[in-house]
Amino acid sequence: xxxxxxxxxxxxxxxxxxxxxxxxxxxxxxxxxxxxxxxxxxxxxxxxxxxxxxxxxxxxxxxxxxxxxxxxxxxxxxxxxxxxxxxxxxxxxxxxxxxxx
Amino acid sequence: xxxxxxxxxxxxxxxxxxxxxxxxxxxxxxxxxxxxxxxxxxxxxxxxxxxxxxxxxxxxxxxxxxxxxxxxxxxxxxxxxxxxxxxxxxxxxxxxxxxxxxxxxxxxxxxxxxxxxxxxxxxxxxxxxxxxxxxxxxxxxxxxxxxxxxxxxxxxxxxxxxxxxxxxxxxxxxxxxxxxxxxxxxxxxxxxxxxxxxxxxxxxxxxxxxxxxxxxxxxxxxxxxxxxxxxxxxxxxxxxxxxxxxxxxxxxxxxxxxxxxxxxxxxxxxxxxxxxxxxxxxxxxxxxxxxxxxxxxxxxxxxxxxxxxxxxxxxxxxxxxxxxxxxxxxxxxxxxxxxxxxxxxxxxxxxxxxxxxxxxxxxxxxxxxxxxxxxxxxxxxxxxxxxxxxxxxxxxxxxxxxxxxxxxxxxx
Lengths: 101, 412
Prior knowledge:
By secondary structure, chain A is α+β, with helices and mostly antiparallel strands.
């Protein structure tokens, strides 16, 4: 029991303090992409993602990208937006957790 | 002789985005990219980012496309080759190995090169430029052992590299020719905020100075200024601007100026030839002047638009691009055209805090560009104001007021 508790604590610690990734669920019908993940440590606010998929992203007060509507763009445009990022801060995953590129 | 339907000269973000865009819409037309670097597309932006430079991000993060991307999209990558001549009548590009490649449609996306510092001693080990991956690698290898670095020039490269060298523990001196940092674009207040941030971090600035020569035998041991002052150092980073290497097209009949001239569709004066990225000097329909911009998002978007137009569309390039540079806990952002040739005015929006500042640049009654210091939250609102061609004749007081929400000027 104690071990499970410790594991859970470590996981929460890692999730909130070590990794600065934010996940956004996507449930657009027929889409291969189920999740958009933005790594805030990598994002430098270049906004390259906004050109191919403008309706998906907005910038926050720290000039980091956040997903405002995960279902706004087509799969092709989302892939283009992830590929456009010069620091690879955006990752896309399917429903099984496999990367979509 | 090799022949491609779409031939792209330049393997950077403009050329690669164009190739990807073309493949999206033309699944079978042959595409080739010629690059003078041997590498697939990598992130030039990361080359001057501290997290990458100081090893906090794995080196491999720099690769933006791998071999499988080119293979799966059936895009031929011809790396490590330089183009030597354009013959538009025969639709032919000559390469440095005396081979030739024919094209049906051609994109010139050759970018810029760092302006060389023309002083004796420039060949010594420890003198760096930052443009290519291999140059970046050279600096990364030396960064941990550098004790005193000199950054030459008052611009993004100098600002970012001085910050990285400072973070790595080196003593840093910035040498600028001008009276203050980035005098040609920043106003006095903006320069002062940036200079204070630099100097408060212990980095020394020497103004109104030029290097006479670089000292040392094989390795750099210092620089000597024109007034005779010697500054010992073991690394010199040159960030004195960039130029377009377009000599090879001079006799081709293509119209050039500082870059390659193009209309608003990024098409040049020669048939079936387009240009994109840093090298393109395109006609801005709003400003009615040729504009050349050197930033990542501009190159990416121009690559996309040029790709679409090579496919046969007539898509104008109207994107408002921007670039933010970070260093010494300070950000400098350029949006749109910050140095229009036409007579311009500047609206100053200072504050709300003393280290925040914006220069909003107008031509006639329209905003065409902006320079922001520690003001990234208003980047998007200003981009929208520029893109919407809003008449701001009666909005000066709102633009000046740091407490006014600029989003209100461009309702969705």
